[in-house]
Amino acid sequence: MNILHASFECYPVAKVGGLADVVGTLPSYQNTLEVNSTVIMPYYDNGFDTEIFDIIFKGSIKLDTSIHEYIIYSTHINKTRILCCYVKGLLDTSKVYGYEYDLYRYLIFQLVVLDFILNNNDFDVIHCHDHHTALIPFLINNSYAYSSLNKVSTVLTIHNAQYQGQFSHDFIKLLPEFDFTKVGLLDWYGNVNPLAAGIKCANAVTTVSPSYMSELINEANGLEGLLQSESYKCKGILNGIDVDFWNPSTDSMIFKNYKVSNVISGKKGNKKEVCAKYGLDVSKPLFGFIGRLVGEKAADLLPEAIRTILSSNLNINFLVLGSGQESIENDLIALKNEFPHNFNTHIGYDEKLSHWVYAASDFLLMPSRVEPCGLNQMYSLRYGTIPIVRRTGGLKDTVIDIGDGGFGICHDKASVWDIEYSVNRALALYENKELYRKIQKEIMKIDHSWTKSAQEYINLYKSITTS
């Protein structure tokens, strides 16, 4: 069985968030099982080593009244074939998102994917990721140009339902000619809604955790009723992580490698180096945060919560890594000036520093308002760092509170009070050295590899493909 994963980002070629990590890892695990998984994504002029690319196909596609030439580049990374689609002026940007013409970029990418498949039709399933690729199921089913692909099955994975890609019906003319009696499949509340169209037209719909699917049935930014009506083909499959890459015993990015047997000395060695670099006291418990500085991650609560905590207790350190909303960034920089010996922040994305934070921190903060799956908590567990999470989405599926016989610290609301209360619970645990060390060793043994989830997807593919 041949699977094509269509995504707008994939690590290590281009990454903004967890979507890239999933698409960069899931196919490689599937390729060790019983399927052939390939990734197709845009080409990015972002400094990635293009010398490893080979040209495997050239074609042309029409978007509105313009003809665009495209090139398909190919390479192999982590046991997976990666295909990159180049279109001058549209699929050759330095950033993944954030252009005023993103709609055209999303559309041309999907049309290039379909045209490539028309000319290289050896795929049984197209696995679409998020709204950037969610029109593919509709076009396969209803566009005259792609009628020969009607035996290709489609899966749509919703990584984050907050982003749906809506645009005005005025832009329908950009799509290839289709059976206009089916135009209602594109509509949701008066706009063309790619994510809604994908839910309607895909053979199967998944989310990145079971709890997130349950949550979306009740609250999905306007898609609740649709997901309820299509629930028969919906399933939550928990993401995994690349346990070879995220492995403290072999991680080349951290200062000192360690495993379960020497986790205490290993983490202490990393903590010493990181604290020295960021002006923090190694003897104090270190709380880390890694993520986008946006409301979804409840990052707007961090400055007030940390300020409140440090105003009454200076026997604690915080290190925040991330970027996003400018006001949050400014609040964190101000906090650094207020508490220079207890708080530091790195504004921006830094892969190596993220590994440092996982390896050095005693606890990881994830007070998210929305967390479809979350990978950071799984990375932290792998590195013996105890997660502090809000019970939502995949955080609810992967972290059990110590009060319930588990290994993490959980709270129910995204609020300053909940963060403060949870940090105080963590400090009490930290003082109980015997229990703290026991939990550290236990969490490093938890298996969150992709193996089980990769097989679940394969079983799903089999259930929707025609013989």
From TrEMBL:
ADP-alpha-D-glucose binds at residue 15. It comes from the Bacteria. Residues 274-430 form the Glycosyl transferase family domain. Residues 2-228 form the Starch synthase catalytic domain. SUPFAM superfamilies: UDP-Glycosyltransferase/glycogen phosphorylase (SSF53756). Pathway: Glycan biosynthesis; glycogen biosynthesis. Synthesizes alpha-1,4-glucan chains using ADP-glucose. This is Glycogen synthase. The lineage of its organism: Bacteria, Pseudomonadati, Bacteroidota, Flavobacteriia, Flavobacteriales.
